[in-house]
Amino acid sequence: MEFSQYPVNSLLYITNRPELVFTEGDGMWLTDHKGKRYLDYLQGWAVNCLGHSPLCIQDALSTQAKKLINPSPAFYNEPSIALAALLTANSCFDRVFFANSGAEANESAVKLARKWGKLNKNAAGENRYEIITFDHSFHGRTLATMSASGKAGWDTIYAPQVPGFFKATLNDIDSVKQLITDKTIAVMLEPVQGEGGVIPATREFMQALRALTKERGVLLIVDEVQTGMGRTGELFGYQLSGVTPDIMTLGKGIGGGVPLAAMLCREEVACFEPGDQGGTYNGNPLMTAVGNAVAQALLAPGFLQSVKDKGAYLSAALLKLTEKHGLAGERGDGLLRALKLGSDIGPQIVEKARDLEPVGLLLNSPRPDLLRFMPALNVTYEELDQMIEMLSGVLSELKR
Questions:
Q1: What's the pLDDT at 1?
Q2: For residue 167, which phi and psi values (nearest 5 degrees)?
Q3: Per residue in 255-287, pLDDT tens?
Q4: Is 90 exceeded by the pLDDT of residue 303?
Q5: Residue range 244-253: mean pLDDT, rounded
Q6: b/e code 357-382 from CB counts within 10 Å (16+ = b)
Q7: 181 is in an annotated binding site
């Protein structure tokens, strides 16, 4: 079937898409409508943590769909209970609220923090509702999460913004101190800023931030929509720094490709009352059954260590590529990494890599001067080598 035969104009135009339609996926590979294969280093923007269509997700969907899909969140269901127990057993949190997207999970975190701020007022008896976030951060596309984000230009698209969010500078503890007022209720950050260019919060900054928030009676929220579920080599990114946050959000990898997210909190801040939060599809057994399958795969002996090992391998390979082509270096944690290009050639690389023949390469350039790599966590060393070789060829071609 030719691309022109697809009624693509029935879709609302929200982004520029190349003229190809993906029809199949397997592991690190996608196949388009013409049968061309692509080595995929986007994986749905870090969503497919086990690659495209892994057997464990196929089995979970098939088995659960035959039993129960959605009894309503007004009732308990077995898969959601099991997944909540698995998440709390392997984190510092006590309670879980399931949602459908990372933005929705982050909205839940904001709501919970502000509810806690109503119950724990300041010395003047006023509600605390202000939340400090960071420049270049990304927390979602709802009005509140766009307001929380530090993405350039987002303060005007749907103005006026939701009030109460103030932007500090990542890895600068003094910039946070200067923003704390008697109305501050939380500080919210990504352990690694993904959309901002794969910028890790340093271990020292995370520890200083936890000490500061405890000292000032302020909640610490970690947005682990991109860094959670094994992406950094630990199950959760906050574990890299040895800190204990109050609230955490998950998305992307927790569902391995299906719409699933979560907001976790410690018992002392679990202050929602009936009616405060909900959602028609939240915690449905079909999606949480998949979440269980994904979590069990990540927690299998040796899996997270393999992510660390492959992250180190990819880092070393990117540094060699840097030396070979005169680039600016690399950064990241685990299998969330960036190649710093030193010039604004990212979009050109993305296009040329995709159009390679007979096999294409799918890359992401969140900023024009870098590439971001988000492979499946079970990517093979051969697939890492193949990507580096293909990318090196593209870089050589651009020099001509």
A1: 82
A2: -100, 125
A3: 999 999 999 999 999 999 999 999 999 999 999
A4: yes
A5: 98
A6: eeebbbbbbbbebbbbbbbbbbbeee
A7: no
User: Percent of the chain, pLDDT > 70?
Assistant: 100
Going by their DSSP bridges, the two strands 95-99 and 261-265 should be labelled as: antiparallel
Task: For residue 103, say whether it is annotated as part of any ligand binding site.
Answer: yes
Closest CA to 48 of 69, 70, 22: 22
Helix (H) or strand (E) holding 192: strand 192-193
225 annotated as belonging to a binding site for a ligand: yes
Count Cβ atoms below 10 Å from residue 314 Cβ, excluding itself.
25
280 marked as binding residue: yes
88 is in an annotated binding site: no
Q: Which two tokens stand for residue 346?
A: 């990212």
CB 113 within 8 A of CB 176: no
User: 1-10, 105-114, 131-140, 319-328: which has the minimum mean pLDDT?
Assistant: 1-10
> What is the average pLDDT across 72-86?
97
d(CA 210, CA 204): 10
Is residue 355 annotated as involved in ligand binding?
Answer: no
113: left (phi over 0), alpha (psi -120 to 50) or beta: alpha
333 is known to lie in a ligand binding site: no
Rounded distance between C-alpha atoms, residue 64 and residue 81, angstroms = 14
* Residue 161 per-residue DSSP state: P
Residue closest to 184 by CA, chosen among 125, 116, 131, 145: 131
For the whole model, what pTM was predicted?
0.97
Contact indicator for 222, 248 with CB cutoff of 8 Å: yes
346 is in an annotated binding site: no
Give the Cα separation of 237 and 198 in Å (integer): 13
CB-based contacts of 359, cutoff 8 Å, min separation 6: 36, 37, 38, 39, 390
- Output the CA angle 320-324-327, nearest 5 degrees: 85
Ligand-binding annotation for 19, yes or no, is: no
Say how far apart CA 385 and CA 320 lie, in whole Å.
12
pLDDT of 400 above 80: no
pLDDT tens-digit series, residues 15-43: 999 999 999 999 999 999 999 999 999 99
